[in-house]
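Late entry, evening session. Most of the bench is empty. Finally got around to the prediction I had been postponing all week. Sequence below, unchanged from the version circulated by S.P.
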Amino acid sequence: MIKSTENSVGAWAFFIGVVLAVIIGLSTMLIPISALTKYSSFIYLILVILGIIVGFSINATGRDSQTFLITGTIIVIVSKFGMESVIGSLIGIGAGDTASSTFAALLALFVPATITVALKNVFGMARV
């Protein structure tokens, strides 16, 4: 089996970003929110940088680009609405902060990646 290496940087950045987002979300159950706020800007900066790396390194053209943009947009919309609505519904069992921080971390990863791929797509279409 031959393995393509042209998207390996983007794939690894994407994988690391998603794992980091889940770890950030689950860490709110173990670490108090007040302790996390000291490092949260640095952690989210790492996620934004990983999102930009994913956006630039992913080699999505044509249908792949459309699929990534549609999927990325759906994840961003659902994460944003989920972040706002989950807090109220899960606050009784103590999982509201965990779900909210997981959604926020996913937003920090997917918004820059989706915007970067969209801009690459627009500039590619504008090329004459």
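Two things to note before I forget:
The first helix runs from residue 8 to 30.
Residues 25 and 98 are 5 Å apart (CA to CA).
Will write this up properly tomorrow.
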